[in-house]
Write a structure and sequence with these properties.
The chain has 186 residues and is an alpha+beta fold. It is built from five helices and six strands, in the order βαααβββαβαβ.
């Protein structure tokens, strides 16, 4: 079922508490088939989390729906980056926030999380398309994505629809098994 009436907008610092809830619920709910509880908790403490630099850069998006109380509710988030860091929230020690050169470097697709109640309804695809368009408008011609095992099928489907993928080892494997690959815009 495709989600309708989804509203995308740039995340703000006021969204951080709800983003934390969505990220933790997404990880615990959607990654349980691929990771042990210890791996999930370890990743939530050391890697997964809100990246305030993405919010400050205006490159992190939230997907909202109108809930039963007629209020907008954040149900997913994701973004892209013009910085070196491929993954990790504010707590991740391996961050590299230097700016990328759009003529030489690939923009980074970053930190996609969907609340389990809204998974597999096309919301991630909407966010990815918005990120690709924004990165292209910023002058980037290539993207690099990192994915947990739970996200590989989604990114593989999107990459093969548009270009070939080149799988490579991810530095995130130190925390949990994952993969990453670069791709070019067509």
């Amino acid at each position: 079922m495709i989600a309708t009436n989804i509203h995308l907008r740039k995340a703000t610092s006021a969204d951080v508490p709800r983003l934390r809830e969505v990220i933790e619920t997404s990880v615990r709910g959607l990654q349980a088939a691929d990771y042990s509880p210890a791996q999930i908790e370890g990743a939530l403490q050391s890697v997964y989390g809100v990246d305030s630099q993405l919010i400050a850069d205006g490159t992190y998006l939230v997907a909202e729906i109108m809930n039963q109380q007629s209020q907008l509710e954040i149900v997913a988030c994701g973004g892209w980056s013009k910085r070196q860091t491929l993954f990790g929230g504010d707590q991740y020690a391996g961050r590299e926030d230097s700016l990328l050169d759009p003529a030489r470097d690939a923009a980074k697709i970053r930190a996609f999380f969907v609340h389990p109640n809204w998974a597999r309804r096309g919301i991630g695809s909407l966010i990815l398309e918005a990120c690709e368009n924004a990165a292209r408008e910023a002058g980037f011609t290539r993207l690099e994505m990192g994915a947990t095992l739970s996200g590989v099928a989604f990114y593989r489907q999107k990459a093969t629809q548009r270009s070939k993928i080149k799988k490579r080892r991810s530095p995130m494997e130190k925390y949990c098994r994952s993969c990453a690959w670069p791709r070019e815009f067509k």
